């Protein structure tokens, strides 16, 4: 399924009385029904951002981990891994898990923008540990 098909699928899904989207969580059902859609990792990332905005960080991490496990080669995997590190560092104050996530971004996705962000985060963590 290409991106245009996904948009048609979304439109039909959204307009169907049987599959009315009453909340952003309904997007998860879309991904479950059509996991091979090109936009599935993007939809999961969008949903994770929504959950961060509503302070549901556990659900956000669950969705970000789904991107990593189900779509490890997608363009969004590095972003998802970095976001997990960011949540661990800034929300849960778990520097060890954050460090591991940032290291993973750098090793698995060295050419993505998130790798540079992860390197900066590791430098920030290191400077805080030396104070």
Strand residues, percent: under 5%
Shape: globular
Main sheet: strands, sense, barrel? none
Order of helices and strands: HHHHHHH
CATH 4th-level superfamily: Tetratricopeptide repeat domain
Average pLDDT level:
82
The radius of gyration computed from the alpha-carbon positions, rounded to a whole number of angstroms, is 16 Å
CATH architecture, by name, is: Alpha Horseshoe
At the first level of CATH, what is the class? Mainly Alpha
CATH topology grouping: Serine Threonine Protein Phosphatase 5, Tetratricopeptide repeat
Please bin the fraction of helical residues. Answer: over 70%
Distance between the termini: 52 Å
Poorly predicted runs? 1-21
Number of DSSP-assigned strands: 0
User: How many distinct domains?
Assistant: 1
Provide the structure class. Answer: mainly alpha
- Counting DSSP H or I runs of 4 or more residues, the number of helices is 7
Question: Can you describe this structure?
Answer:
With 131 residues, the chain is mostly helical. The chain has one domain (3-129): Alpha Horseshoe (Serine Threonine Protein Phosphatase 5, Tetratricopeptide repeat). The chain has 7 helices and no strands.
């Amino acid at each position: 399924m290409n991106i245009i098909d996904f948009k048609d699928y979304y439109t039909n899904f959204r307009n169907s009385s049987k599959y009315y989207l009453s909340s952003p969580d309904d997007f998860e059902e879309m991904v479950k029904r059509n996991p091979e859609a090109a936009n599935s990792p993007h939809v999961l990332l969008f949903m994770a951002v929504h959950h961060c905005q509503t302070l549901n960080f556990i659900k956000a991490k669950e969705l970000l981990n789904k991107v990593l496990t189900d779509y490890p080669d997608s363009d969004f995997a590095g972003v998802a891994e970095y976001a997990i590190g960011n949540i661990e560092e800034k929300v849960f104050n778990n520097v060890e898990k954050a460090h591991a996530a940032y290291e993973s971004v750098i090793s698995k996705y060295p050419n993505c923008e998130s790798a540079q962000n992860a390197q900066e985060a590791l430098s920030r963590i290191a400077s805080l540990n030396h104070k």
